[in-house]
Amino acid sequence: MRALMTHPRRTASGAVAITAVAALIGGCGSSGGSAASAAPPSAAPTSAAAAPTPAPQGSLAGKVIVIDPGHNGGNASHPEIINKKVNVINAFKPCNSTGTATNDNYAEHAFTWDVSNRLAKILRAKGAKVILTRKNDKGVGPCVDERAKIANRAHADATLAIHGDGAPASGHGFHIIEPAVIKGHNEKVVPLSRKLGLDIRNAFHQGTGIPYSTYLGKNGLDVRSDLGGLNVATVPAVFIEAGNMRNAGDAAKMKSPAGRQRMAQALAQGFEKFLS
Question: Residue 222's domain is classified under what CATH number?
Answer without folding.
Answer: 3.40.630.40
